[in-house]
Amino acid sequence: MSNELCPCGSGKAYDECCKPIIKGTAPAKTAEALMRSRYTAYVKHEIDHIINSCETSDKENRIDVEETRKWSEESTWQGLKILRTEKGKENDTEGVVEFTATYTTKKGIRDVHHETANFKKINGEWVYSSGYLTTTTVVREGRKIGRNEPCPCGSGKKYKQCCGR
Predict the structure, then answer these.
(1) Cβ-based neighbour number of residue 138 at 10 Å
(2) For 121, left (φ over 0), alpha (ψ -120 to 50), or beta?
(3) Measured between alpha carbons, how far is 122 from 113 in angstroms, rounded to an integer?
């Protein structure tokens, strides 16, 4: 058992917080717990959990698995903040969790994903149902890389010929 803190920001150990939910050995008791596990799944690149914790119709109609995997793997995840919750407790059947997830892209752009997420309890298990995104301003971390400068990824190519495309 590891003492690694859970990326969801709960202050608990990962093994005792989101890992059992992600690995399917324990259900999420609340909508917020599912939301925290979904964020942690992005950090840990556990894409199956993200897909499997969606309402069935959502999986079939809206999830691009490869884009989800790419976003997870190409981002540096910096933190989750739960802004508010409505219902979503153990005895509820619906819940809302408003949150922000901060991350930096591989191009050095810092972004904040701000969403109001809707959850449902189906057959006794919480699932992500839908979400509403709030637009935020993207902030670049560090100075802008010139098109003709060497690419910061270390390829030896000019930025415009590599990651700047």
Answers:
(1) 10
(2) beta
(3) 26
Cβ-count burial 72-88 (b if 16+ within 10 Å, e if not): beebebeebebeebeeb
How would you class 110 by CB atoms within 10 Å of its CB: exposed for 0-12, middle for 13-18, buried for 19 or more? Answer: middle
Q: Strands, DSSP E only, in 36-149?
A: 75-87, 94-105, 109-122, 125-134, 139-140
Residue 64: other Cβ atoms inside 10 A: 9
Tens digits of per-residue pLDDT, 38-89? 999 999 999 999 999 998 764 455 778 899 999 999 999 999 999 999 999 9
On whether the pTM is more than 0.85, the answer is: no
According to DSSP, residue 26 is labeled: S
One-letter amino acid at 28 equals A
Q: Is 84 helix (H, G, I), strand (E, B) or coil?
A: strand
Closest CA to 145 of 164, 132, 125: 164
Per-residue pLDDT of 9-49, as tens digits, reads 999 999 999 999 999 999 999 999 999 999 999 999 999 99
